[in-house]
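tool=predict chain=A
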Amino acid sequence: TTTKDRKIPILKAFVKVPLVSITSSNSSQESFTLCTSPLHNKAKYLVQWIEFHRLVGFSKFVIYNTTDTDDYLSTIINIYTQKYPGLVDVVQWNFSTLGLVDVLPTRYFQTEALHDCLIRYGDQSEWLGMLDLDEYIVPLPPYETIVDYVHANFGR
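tool=predict ok
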């Protein structure tokens, strides 16, 4: 295992983050996991977002849910759970029940969700990303999938 430091811009600041080369003997490790930013009344976009990212190579989705408690979200999750076990996990992300208030109310503790995603899924996935439901990763030619791009550019 080798460790290097790389400066990564986070919230308009630079933080030294150690880069660690990880080789896992866990054959069930997910290759590409994608976490949502906290959902806030956006469940209607979820199926399109998941299906697009499945097509480009993501194999696990983690949904951070803040307020969507309607039957629509439950129906979506139940369908994915039955048809594709293990594809989608839901993390209930409601800090208001704890009496906490985000300094930027429209963020819904997004930075903390990113950290939670890294802690929960970092050792289960070779590659991990976090996107809003209105953001899409689109591989450009000559790459058809994110897997093709990563293997060609990062050797894994």
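The beta strands are 3-10, 13-20, 30-36, 60-65, 88-92, 125-131. The domain at 30-154 is CATH 3.90.550.10 (Spore Coat Polysaccharide Biosynthesis Protein SpsA; Chain A).
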